[in-house]
Amino acid sequence: MKVTVIGAGYVGLTVGACLADLGHTVVCAEKDRARLARLREGTVPFYEPQLPEIVRRGLGGGRLTFSGVGEDAADQSQVIFIAVGTPPSADGQPDVSAVDEAVRVIAPHLDDGQVLVLKSTVPVGTTDRIEAVLRHDTGAHRAVACNPEFLREGSAVADFFHPSRVIVGTHSRAAAEVLTALHQPLECPILVTAPRTAEMIKYASNAFLATKVSFINEIAAICEQVEADAATVAAGMGSDPRIGPHFLRAGIGFGGSCLPKDVRALAALAREHRVTPSLLEAVLRVNDAQRQQFMEKVEAALGGIAGKTLAVLGLAFKGGTSDVRESPALDIAGRLLAGGAVVRAFDPAAEEGAAETLPALICCPDAYEAAEGADAILILTDWPDFESLDWKRLRKRVRTPVVLDGRGLRVAASAIDEGFAYIGQGPPKAR
Ligand code: UDX
Fold first, then answer.
1. Are 82 and 120 in contact (CB under 8 A)?
2. Is 258 a pocket residue for ligand 1 (Cβ < 6 Å)?
């Protein structure tokens, strides 16, 4: 099948390259000329494991090409995915101007055999609105569908090839058949719904994930007061299949370009329809509070942060990505700098983005350089590498052996063995 993907960002590039890897002929259209040039060379402009080799395989095999977002971008494609950004606007609802612009450019060139698919996360009702716009502008019915993505940054390729479900929201039988055929090889449940239902599944899924994180963070706060071990509580809860073990790791909270934005958007939608989003607002409040609670732990452990040197391990919003959008780690690093601390930071992939936001960061090539002369080590991103640090080596670099773990990693025993005071969920631990 010939496919066009408009928008070669985190989602569009992954979807386009993986569809090409499945054997389809894919054109990825990107309006940013600099990014387009890098993509044509086979360079992926962000950290995403496995994606570079898939992009290069598609380019080499002639199944993946990159173009500008011109009128011809959708020519001869049976399916046109719109995967452009929908960043939050002031009222909490996503800004869909890039989606509308993409539709405006290709609408005159759509014929009735083509299916236009919204892959971007869009407010409930957008697919129906665009279908009506197309009918008005072209005078003919055009098949439009919503096909939300559930790709996690850092495991997007694996999530594409092994989805737990595919959601197709459309009124068009033809669109449903084409998208079902396209996703058939992924061998997972394919749920065809009305467009609004598909759009809501996306928001409700992300909002529930965020709710689980804020829930376990609130439970961890209670555990700390009653001397229960939060990680063990999470394990005990998660063994119930109705609860599940995932998204129950307490820490400094959720970030990224999706969960915070989608919870805010859903709450805004609720208010717009005079439904009080009590739970969604609580999820956001609890999440925001995690950062301040962590800052208070740092202040208490050091007797204040002004003039102190802190080694920050992790700047990305989670391990496995270079993305610092709404990163709790970056937020805390900024609060430390604002409080007069010197911040020596290391992140395996996110330093460039972090340094743009916080030029005062002292970016270090590894954790051991970051620890040089530090009054404390702060673990703020769950990079797997941080669970195998050499604490004997770190002990020789720090000024005082204190580690505050904001992500509940498995480091306490190793750090304590080397003489560190470990502060995480629950009472401080030391040898
Ligand atoms: C999310 C959804 O998982 C994905 O389905 C959707 O398509 C896009 O948004 P992503 O934003 O990449 O994916 O991150 P995710 O893995 O969901 O983590 C979100 C945040 O929650 C991260 O900041 C992470 O550190 C935090 N988190 C996650 C926790 O604090 N505790 C957990 O137990 C799990």
1. yes
2. yes
* Mean pLDDT comparison of 131-145, 379-393, 414-428, highest-scoring range: 379-393
State the pTM of this model: 0.96
431 vs 429: CA distance, rounded Å: 7
- Binding site membership of 231 for ligand 1 (Cβ less than 6 Å): no
258 is annotated as an active-site residue: yes
The minimum-distance atom of ligand 1 relative to the CA of 407 is: 30
Residue 57, classed as helix, strand or coil, is helix
Distance spanning both ends of the chain, measured CA to CA: 62
Structural tokens at position 386: 């941080």
**Residue 282 C-alpha to ligand 1 middle, in angstroms?**
18
Residue 4 CA: distances (Å) to CA of 26, 69, 105, 156, 206: 6, 10, 13, 19, 26
Nearest atom in ligand 1 to the alpha carbon of residue 159 is 5
Q: Is the pLDDT of residue 70 over 80?
A: no
Pairing of strands 115-118, 79-82: parallel
- pLDDT tens track for 214-268: 999 999 999 999 999 999 999 999 999 999 999 999 999 999 999 999 999 999 9
Q: Is the CB of 169 under 6 A from ligand 1?
A: no
Q: Is the beta carbon of 10 within 6 A of some atom in ligand 1? A: no
Positive/negative CA dihedral, 274, 84, 192, 247: negative
Name the catalytic one among 18, 28, 223, 258: 258
Strands (E), 217-303: none
- The tokens for 264 are 């805010």
Least confident of 14-18, 26-30, 87-91, 190-194: 87-91
Q: Which two tokens stand for residue 266?
A: 């859903």
Cα distance between residue 305 and residue 48, in whole Å: 35
**Phi, psi of 67, rounded to the nearest 5 degrees:** -140, 170
* Sole residue written with tokens 């999820």: 283
The verdict on the CB of residue 110 being under 6 Å from ligand 1 is no
What per-residue confidence (pLDDT) applies to 71?
A: 64
Q: 258, 263, 283, 380: which to mutate for ligand 1, most atoms within 8 A of CB? A: 258
Does residue 73 carry a pLDDT above 80?
Answer: no
Beta bridge partners of 422: 403, 429
Pocket test for ligand 1, best of 120, 152, 205, 249 (most atoms within 8 A of CB): 152
